[in-house]
Please model this.
Amino acid sequence: MTVLAGPTAVGKGTVSADVRARYPQVWLSVSATTRPPRPGEVHGVHYLFVSPEEFDRMVAAGEMLEWAVVHGRHRYGTPRGPVEDHLAAGRPTLLEIDLQGARQVRSSMPTARFVFLSPPSLEELVRRLVGRGTEDAEERARRLRTAEVEMAAEPEFDVTIVNDDVTRATDELAGLLGVSETGATSTLPRVAG
Model:
C-alpha cells in the first residue's frame, strides 16, 4: 500500500485522478467526508459525502482506518473495509489522505510506503489555492496556515515527489507503485526513509 499526502492545493486530487485514468490496475481509496461537494465532484468517485451523524456512526463502529478534522472544519476518513479487501487481493492500493491521516496509518500499517507530494515552491502553492477559486478568503487563509504545518512534515515521509508537472509526478508515483500504463504490475521493495 502507498499513502500519498501533502499540503492543501498541492494537487493530490489531480495526481490521483491521473493515476486512476492512466493506471486502472491501481485501486484508489475513496475517502469519506462531512464537507459538501465542490462543483463537479461526484459521490462515490471523488469522495463519499456523508452527514456528520453518519461519519460519527462509522467511527464508532470501527469502520475507519483513519480519520481527522482537516482545516479545523470538516472531517475526512478512509473506510477500512475496502482497503483491507484490495490489499488481501494483492492489488496495488493508493490512499490519498491528509497529514493527520497519514500519521494514523503509519502507526497501524508501518510497512506502507509514505509519499509526500510537494509543490515546486510555497508561492506556487498559494497561486494554486487562490487560482482554483473554490474557497472564500477566510477558508483560503485557514488552508494556508494548515499548509505551512503540512510542509514542515515532509521529513516524516519515505519519498518526496515534486508536483511541478502532473504527468511526470503521476509517472513517478506509478513507478513507486510498481505499475505501468500497459497494465503490468511488478513487485518493488518498500523504500526506506
Notes: Confidence is low (pLDDT under 50) at residues 186-193. The CA atoms of residues 120 and 165 lie 9 Å apart. The chain has one domain: 2-177.
